Each structure stands twice: as structure tokens, then as C-alpha cells.
């Protein structure tokens, strides 16, 4: 089922169909780029400026494959009259180990690889210890790893994090 969002020229979601609510949750009033968070490999496709560029005519309508919330999908961003419309056609779930890590997950795993203790990671990044654990667990899940060490090894092998110095 197609998930459809209507977006204003400032990039805020103004309406969502039931499929979009199922896929993204409550989204009206949020920035589209914060809701969709589409990725193509390591690159984030959705930016705070994309809806403004599309509304101004600086950016052409786009249709492209993407990864959203652990699923392959087709992402279409287009103008329909005065409205901006984002259509997501969800596909199959990604296989474990194929989903790309977020910048923060790569940052945390890089520090884990360097032997930094979780409490020190939290202090360095100015986040809570539970947030450090969450980033490690999400990275571990995305990499299909059972342990932190295995997550680090897989991230290193995939080039997601640089080798520790």
C-alpha cells in the first residue's frame, strides 16, 4: 500500500494517509525530512532543503529507490498543484547486515572500536549512557551481529567506520 504525505513549502507534513500513519506514526506538523529519513547507501536523500527546492522549482520531481526504516522502497517526491507530495511504496524488509548505519551509530561504534568505555563515549558525545547503548544495539541489529565486538568487526569490514588508530 502506498504511504502518501502532503508537505507544505516549509517542509512540514500537513496530511498523511493511513498507510503513512502505519509506516511513520503521527507525522502531521513534523518536518518531512525528519519523518521519511530515506537513505541511498550511506547518503541521506531527505534534507531540510529538498521540499523548499522542489516548491521553488529548483529541483525536479524525483523517483528513486531508497531504504526507509529497514525496508527497501520507491520514493517519489513531486509537486501536485500547489502541494508537495511524497509517496513511499514500501518493499521487502532488508536482509540483516545490509542496512546502512546512521552517522551517530558509526561515530559510537568507531569509539567502541578504539576501546573507549561507554561512559566516556557518553561524555564525549554529550549524550546519556542509555543512548550510547541504544546506538550500539541498533548498529548491532543493522549489521546482523550478535555481539558488540562482532558489530565493530562487521562495520570495519564494510568500511562503515575507520580502523582505530
Overview of the molecule:
The protein has 165 residues and is of the alpha+beta class. The protein has helices spanning 18-24, 32-36, 50-56, 103-113, 118-125, 129-143, 148-158; strands at 3-7, 13-16, 39-40, 43-44, 62-68, 71-80, 83-93. The protein folds into 2 domains: 3-93, Beta-Lactamase (2-Layer Sandwich), CATH 3.30.450.20; 103-158, Orthogonal Bundle (Arc Repressor Mutant, subunit A). 39% of the residues lie in helices and 25% in strands. The protein has a 5-stranded antiparallel sheet with strand order 2-1-7-6-5. Strands 3-4 form a two-stranded antiparallel sheet. Helix 4 crosses helix 6 and helix 5 (118-125) packs across helix 6 (129-143). It is elongated and about 55 Å long.
User: What is the overall shape?
Assistant: elongated
CATH first level of the largest domain? Alpha Beta
The CATH topology assignment of the largest domain is: Beta-Lactamase
**What is the CATH architecture term of the largest domain?**
2-Layer Sandwich
Q: How many individual helices? A: 7
Output the keywords.
alpha+beta; Arc Repressor Mutant, subunit A; 165 residues; elongated
Amino acid at each position: 500500500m502506498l504511504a502518501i504525505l502532503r508537505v507544505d513549502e516549509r517542509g512540514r507534513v500537513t496530511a498523511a494517509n493511513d498507510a503513512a500513519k502505519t509506516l511513520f506514526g503521527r507525522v502531521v506538523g513534523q518536518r518531512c525530512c525528519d519523518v521519511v529519513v530515506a537513505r541511498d547507501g550511506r547518503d541521506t536523500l531527505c534534507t531540510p532543503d529538498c521540499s523548499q527546492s522542489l516548491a521553488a522549482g529548483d529541483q525536479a520531481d524525483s523517483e528513486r529507490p531508497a531504504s526507509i526504516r529497514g525496508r527497501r522502497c520507491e520514493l517519489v517526491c513531486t509537486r501536485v498543484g500547489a502541494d508537495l507530495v511524497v509517496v513511499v511504496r514500501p518493499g521487502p524488509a532488508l536482509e540483516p547486515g545490509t542496512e546502512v548505519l546512521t552517522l551517530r551509530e558509526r561515530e559510537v561504534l568507531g569509539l567502541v572500536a578504539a576501546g573507549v568505555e561507554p561512559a566516556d563515549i557518553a561524555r564525549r558525545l554529550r549524550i546519556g549512557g542509555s543512548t550510547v547503548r541504544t546506538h550500539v544495539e541498533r548498529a548491532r541489529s543493522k549489521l546482523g551481529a550478535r555481539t558488540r565486538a562482532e558489530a565493530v568487526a562487521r562495520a570495519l569490514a564494510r568500511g562503515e567506520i575507520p580502523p582505530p588508530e
